[in-house]
Design brief:
Layout: E1 2-7, H1 11-14, H2 20-27, E2 32-37, E3 50-52, E4 60-62, H3 64-77, E5 82-92, H4 95-101, E6 106-111, H5 119-124, E7 128-131, H6 141-152, E8 185-186, E9 189-190, H7 200-218, H8 220-224
Length: 225
């Protein structure tokens, strides 16, 4: 899978995508992440990528030409399943979306910055708009890193145990159950006895019951859905 990220501040993406599971995915050749500095396609000797908005108002707007030039260049090399724009007014991102995107071959992610992008980019090129929450960040880079991480870990072969991701929170519209490891007794705080029983069927039922209990307490809206 290949993910191209278009950013006005590419250095913000270097660290989140260069360690842990994302590093492993790329080292295995299962995921290719290419970060593009939009200023390389800026206009004039100062490589301008933003300008004042028509009609007045606070905040600069990312210009259409640099973004369009880069997207057209990428599209000339390969076809893309989605061109995603990270924006606070996009569709709220959920696990089901990560599951879907992880099945694709090529994705472009455009990171908004400043006041946002010229609307014509959204009208002409963008196929999906995504928000990671009902709040505003300085730019779309952190949101893009969230997308890549959530997608990349689902690619077969990335996690050491391929079934691990299937039991994450939200995969079955339930939160994950409590988990424990050694020691079994920590200053009197004990691991539930059922987990030490070796009875797989009872352990599975306990985990399911705890998932429902946790979801009812923390995210009852998931049960309503």
């Amino acid at each position: 899978m290949r993910i191209d990220i278009i950013s006005a501040v590419p250095d913000l993406l270097a660290s989140p995508l260069s360690h842990s599971i994302m590093r492993r995915a790329q080292d295995k050749g299962l995921l290719e992440v290419v970060i593009h500095d939009l200023r390389d396609y800026g206009i004039g000797k100062h490589r301008q990528i933003d300008d004042y908005q028509y009609g007045g108002g606070a905040g600069l707007v990312m210009m259409i030409e640099p973004i369009a030039t880069l997207i057209e260049k990428l599209k000339s090399d390969r076809s893309y399943d989605e061109i995603i724009y990270m924006t606070p007014d996009g569709q709220l991102y959920e696990q089901s979306h990560a599951n879907e995107l992880s099945t694709y071959d090529n994705i472009i992610i455009l990171c908004g910055h400043y006041k946002g992008v010229d609307q014509r980019i959204r009208d002409i090129y963008i196929t999906r708009e995504i928000s990671i929450g009902s709040y505003v960040l300085s730019g779309g880079e952190l949101g893009a890193a969230v997308l890549v991480d959530s997608i990349g870990r689902l690619i077969p072969g990335v996690l050491n145990d391929g079934s691990s991701a299937l039991f994450d929170s939200f995969q079955d519209d339930l939160l994950a159950p409590p988990i424990y490891t050694r020691p079994a007794d920590f200053h009197g705080a004990l691991v539930p006895q059922i987990l030490l029983s070796g009875d797989d069927a009872k352990i599975e039922q306990w985990r399911h019951d705890k998932s429902i209990q946790s979801t009812r307490q923390r995210r009852p809206d998931l049960l309503d859905d």
